[in-house]
Automatic annotation (TrEMBL):
Residues 147-216 form the HTH crp-type domain. Keywords: DNA-binding, Transcription, Transcription regulation. One of its GO terms (cellular component) is cytosol. Residues 12-116 form the Cyclic nucleotide-binding domain. CDD domains: CAP_ED (cd00038). This is Crp/Fnr family transcriptional regulator. It comes from the Bacteria. PROSITE patterns: CNMP_BINDING_3 (PS50042), HTH_CRP_2 (PS51063). GO terms for molecular function: DNA binding; DNA-binding transcription factor activity. Transmembrane segments: none annotated.
Length: 231
C-alpha cells in the first residue's frame, strides 16, 4: 500500500499537496500492535495522532460501574485522536485498544504544528476538516436517537466504502461483530437480524465481509445525502 496516497484520501490530509503528504508519510512512525494491546490510556499526553494502515481500533471508557463504553471504532485508512492532539489539554480523553492485529502510522504533533505554522492555507484547510468532522459527530448523535438499527448498520457500512466506489463493494468487518453492535447501540443478539433486513436493499453478509450491490441504493435507504464521512 502507498501510505502517502492513502493519507491523501482522508479529510485531514486531502487539502495538502502531494509533497507535504509524502513528508508526513516518511517522517511518521509505523507501529504494530497485537490484538488486545493498548495504544494509549485516558489522560496520557497526546503527542501523536494515528492513521490505520491495517486492522481495527476501538476508543472506549470505563464507567463508574466498571463497564466498558465504546466511544468509537476505526477501520483501515481512517485517522483518529486528532482532537486530543490539537486540543488545549493535549491529553487523550479516552482509552484506545487494537481489536485485531493492527498496523498504524503514528503522526507526531510537533511535525504537524511545524507544517501548519509555515503554511496558512493548510491551517484553513484543517479548520474545514475539523468542521466537517464536527458535522459528522452531530449526524452520529442523530443516528443513535432517530434511526432504526438496520439504517445505523447501513450508514456505518457506507462510511467504510472506498472513495469513488459505486457498485459491488466488499467491506471487511472486524471478527468481533459485537463491537459494531455496541458502537451503534444495538443489542449484540439482535445485530444479525438487523443486518438481514439490509438484504432487500442490496447488502449481503458473507462471513466477515459485507457485499454492497449499489452505494446509491443503500444511501437512499439510510437517508444519507453524502456517504463520504470524515475519518
Amino acid at each position: 500500500m502507498n501510505t502517502a496516497n492513502a493519507l491523501k484520501k482522508t479529510a485531514l490530509f486531502s487539502g495538502m499537496d502531494d509533497e507535504k503528504v509524502a513528508l508526513f508519510a516518511s517522517k511518521s512512525l509505523v507501529r504494530h500492535y497485537e490484538k488486545g494491546e493498548e495504544l494509549f490510556a485516558m489522560g496520557d499526553q497526546a503527542a501523536s495522532f494515528f492513521f490505520i494502515i491495517d486492522g481495527w481500533v476501538k476508543l472506549y471508557r470505563i464507567t463508574r460501574e466498571g463497564e466498558e463504553s465504546i466511544i468509537n471504532v476505526f477501520a483501515p485508512h481512517e485517522t483518529f485522536a486528532e482532537a486530543a492532539v490539537f486540543g488545549p489539554m493535549q491529553r487523550y480523553p479516552v482509552n484506545a485498544q487494537a481489536v485485531e492485529d493492527t498496523t498504524l502510522l503514528e503522526i507526531p504533533r510537533s511535525l504537524f504544528v511545524e507544517t501548519i505554522r509555515a503554511d496558512s492555507d493548510l491551517a484553513i484547510s484543517i479548520l474545514g476538516a475539523i468542521a466537517a468532522k464536527q458535522h459528522y459527530l452531530i449526524q452520529q448523535i442523530e443516528q443513535l436517537t432517530v434511526r432504526e438499527a438496520p439504517q445505523r448498520i447501513g450508514t456505518f457500512l457506507l462510511r467504510l466504502c472506498p472513495p469513488g466506489a459505486t457498485r459491488n463493494i466488499e467491506v471487511a468487518l472486524p471478527y468481533d461483530k459485537s463491537l459494531i453492535a455496541r458502537r451503534l447501540n444495538i443489542q449484540p443478539e439482535t445485530f444479525s437480524r438487523a443486518f438481514k433486513k439490509l438484504e432487500p436493499h442490496g447488502v449481503h453478509l458473507q462471513g466477515r465481509v459485507a457485499v454492497i450491490e449499489e452505494i446509491g441504493r443503500l444511501a437512499a435507504f439510510c437517508d444519507v445525502e453524502d456517504r463520504d464521512k470524515p475519518c
